[in-house]
TrEMBL record:
<dbReference type="InterPro" id="IPR036255">
    <property type="entry name" value="YgfB-like_sf"/>
</dbReference>
<protein>
    <submittedName>
        <fullName>UPF0149 family protein</fullName>
    </submittedName>
</protein>
<dbReference type="InterPro" id="IPR011978">
    <property type="entry name" value="YgfB-like"/>
</dbReference>
<comment type="similarity">
    <text>Belongs to the UPF0149 family.</text>
</comment>
<dbReference type="Pfam" id="PF03695">
    <property type="entry name" value="UPF0149"/>
</dbReference>
Amino acid sequence: MSLINDRLDFSTVADLFLLHNSLQSPAFLDGRLAAALALHDLSAEAWLEELCLALGVEQPRDPESAEQFLAWRRQALEALSAAGLDYAPLLPDELFSLAEQARGLKEWTQGFLEVLAEVDADKRQAWSDNLKEALADLEILAGMEAELEESSENENDLFALAEHARMAAMLLYTEQHPGRPQVEQPPKEH
């Protein structure tokens, strides 16, 4: 398994999809995963079921594939719930063209928003203004032009947009899971 800093990367998951005869982008499903974990603690079984449905298979092709799919879920959940706030969407990295990276971010955003579309209006109304604003920005991001020219300016812009998506996912998680992650320690009284 190709791990960078002990994390599954985009290429590894894309290769796993190819083993299942799917050319689907892992970014879209990672967006769905992040939103589902934030909203309702998507179980391992439900995640495997959703993945298999998306890949058009009845079950993972072998135990190793199933374990990698579950490791992907664990990685996302651990990052979303960690005090280090180090969650990162599973997106194409610098080995891919800027246009491919932009398409990956757009697909991640579309997957994330697809899950949020299922949330009822009362629950949405209870969300903070910051979260509502971040999600409104993601709506715009989902419709962005993905055919970017290679330039340092476009690269910087894409990085900022990916950071915005990352922060929106963490904000959604923290609002749905008060106290997790524990990012601010209350002062200790003596």
